[in-house]
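User: Fold this; tokens only.

Assistant: Input:
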Amino acid sequence: MKVSVIVPFHRGLHFITDCLDSLSEQTWKDFETLIIKDHVEEKEADKLLSSYKDKLNLRIYDLHEKNGVSAARNLGIQKAQGEYLYFLDSDDYLAETTLEELVDAADKENYDLTYGVIKQTWFRRMVYYGAEQHNEEDQEFCGQPWKDLVENRIDVSLLSCIHMLIKKSGFDEECLCFDEDLEYYCDIPLLAYFLEKTKSIGFCKKADYIKRGHNDEIQYPSLSKADIEDRPQRLSKAYKAIGKITPELKGIIDQKFVTFCGKGFLQKVRRDKASEWKNSRFLPVHEYAQTVDNSRICNQEDNEKKVLKALQQESYEACKKKINHILAKRKIHRMLTEKRFMYRTISKYIFERFSQQDQWVVFESFFGKQYSDSPKYIYEYLLKNYGDQYKFIWIINDKSMKIPGNPKKVPRFSLGYFYYITRAKYWVTNVRQPVWFEKRDSQYLLETWHGTPLKKLGFDMEENYSASPTYKRQIYSQSRFWDCLVSANPFSTEAFHTCFLYEKEKIIETGYPRNDILYAPDKEQIAADLKKKLGIPADKKTILYAPTWRDDEYYDHGAYKFNLALDLKRLQKEIGDEYVVLLRTHYFIADAIDVTGMEDFVFNVCKYPDIAELYLISDICMTDYSSVFFDFANLRRPILFFTYDLEKYRDILHGFYIDIQTEVPGPLLMTNDEVINAIKNIDQIEEQYKEKYDEFYDRFCCFDDGHATERIVNMVFNK
């Protein structure tokens, strides 16, 4: 046996699936895989791991009395039968030729230790290889072991023995093992030994190791991210375990310690009121700081230098006092230079001292950009039936926007915005509130959301293009403050439960208030009036085209590019005698669509606030992956799907909750030819999809009946 691949495994079946798939596809076949199970609790783990026994030379062992990465690796070393050892983390994976490249290099040059390139990604394998232009090397590799394996590794948590092909004889002759007393940084002592003692170390630039970051720190925190405030304390413990350390390695680790402490870690001292900081946490860090050469501290910026000097020389209380002073100066500077931060500070220290106003209701739709959606319909119902009981406030960026009832209008992030969201009892919104907002216990945040989800959201998004750890961390924090969440159907209830990790008991299945108008007794008159208002000829049928945004095409946060794939000029030529097109792009899309010369055929309704009213005048709805079709289905009118980039959008950018190829109530169209043909034969398509449409309606439109608003008001405001 040439190579023994040792993989400790604690949890994360979707991670280890990619890991084992990458091993099963290696071009080098003379290796064994040792899975060391570290108290795995996931029910399907044994079944999943056993399924790879036909694909790999696989042996599985359990840690019983011990736990941790060190113990798992040590058991793997004991059981290994290969000439070389290779350590692979269960959440990472390899390129197909990685083992072959490492073995070839080691054999050719007789290296005792061979290492390759580490690339960092958030993506699972399928997405990673589909979006390689977005992947980055963890660092620049130069082929010099000290620089590659220690000095150039940005974070001390990256000082690791992963992605090293090491002769097993080196472990056996010196009885080497990982220190099981070290939960963190257990690689550092061995890494120091290898760099000091190993005679022949080689670099293989063609051997890629893909280190997969965890984008779900709530459910699957990585070891390097857990309890970050304890990192210097644990680093100190690892340093002591090294024993006789080389001056070069000591200096490098010291620099990483200084950088980490000086760049923000010690804010934790100020924030944390727990007594263990004063005792168990501060002392080891203080002791370690005393061993750091002063020249490294002197190279830091002024504030960081003061903190580190205090950490070296002073008591916990003195250190904390100095940190408080530095952070207070920073806060004052931000208040004087950032208006929004100043307003937040005023809100925290002044507005929060004012009493709550139980009759105040704040409404917001799409970040203050519109008077629309479910908040609009809840507002108008309250205004009509309980207008004398409440004071209404609308967060609206355009104060000239006409809103019935003369509510108070405040732009988002103005001083008035902070004043009203701090004091009002009720806040009705269809999007996530700012991540810094912490409501009073007695306040009520009604989250209506803005649609039945087709695209995966939040914690249901695995490592694809849109799913960053910050996004998931924020969405978890924000949803903790929602007092209830509106659902339009049982499908949405289940999706919201998993994507927000939100309690089902707090999800109210009422239907969407914004869809009440689709069941209004005067909806035909509303449609006729709107058609006239927009200048659409009464004898023309209308096609609503409502495409969504692409995550990987953007100018800035919340400002997305859009390349129109629909050939509007050809559509005008082919169907212009019978139809007009209503163009409605997502509000995230910043590009204006040029319709010059087609003004009588294409009506740009991107800025029309209420899309539900547009549904009423639309004979056909055409979209790609927008959730508009769930709402439009309430009208039982034809729906077409122009999905020209389906594989990329589904597999790389987002992922879907349903099988769009079998469950939607209309055809998937890939070309302009297919779009035109479908429109010309819309009656046949209606008949073809009638049964599927009925099933879809029963599944997704089951709560909408024109009375969703009334139900919500009775549940929230009249309880």
